[in-house]
Amino acid sequence: MNFKDSKGIYLQIADRICDEVLLGKYHEEARIPSVREYAAMVEVNANTVMRSFEHLQSQGVIYNKRGIGYFVSTGAKEKILALRKEYFLKEEAEYFFRQVYTMGFSAEELKNMYCEYIKNKEEL
């Protein structure tokens, strides 16, 4: 896995696991790979993956069955989407809208660009 310097590795791994849940690789109540297995998959230290799992557990995305492993929580997809929307609105929307405003885009132009983006994504 290629990591960015701008965000902690454990958070990038947590994001990847969330993406995998959203894409259906891991279903609700399904076991996810162990810390060691996942560490080998993404080629990092097991302690880093453990930190990712603890982060996801604190957010209610996964839970631990002692001695068995980690599992995807019921309602994980909805929780992930809610957390991502909250993060976007708090951390990224202000910058995005400032850029849109300073470049002089109208609301109609922005709407059209977004509709075109959605149309192109649906065709894939």
Q: C-alpha Rg, in Å? A: 18 Å
Shape: elongated
User: What value does the average pLDDT take?
Assistant: 95
**CATH level-four homologous superfamily name of the domain at 9-76:** Winged helix-like DNA-binding domain superfamily/Winged helix DNA-binding domain
Mind summarizing the main beta sheet?
Answer: 2 strands, antiparallel
Give a verbal description of the structure.
A hairpin with a 3-residue loop joins strand 1 and strand 2. The two termini are 24 Å apart. Helix 1 packs across helix 3 and helix 2 packs across helix 3. The chain is mainly α and 124 residues long. The protein contains five helices and two strands. The chain has a two-stranded antiparallel ribbon.
Write the SSE topology.
Blueprint: H1 9-22, H2 35-42, H3 46-58, E1 62-65, E2 69-72, H4 76-102, H5 107-123
Antiparallel strand pairs: 1-2
Helix pairs in contact: 1-3, 2-3
Give a brief outline of the structure.
The chain has 124 residues and is mostly helical. 64% of the residues lie in helices and 6% in strands.
Comma- or semicolon-separated keywords:
two-stranded antiparallel ribbon; 2 strands; 5 helices; Arc Repressor Mutant, subunit A; 124 residues; elongated; mainly alpha
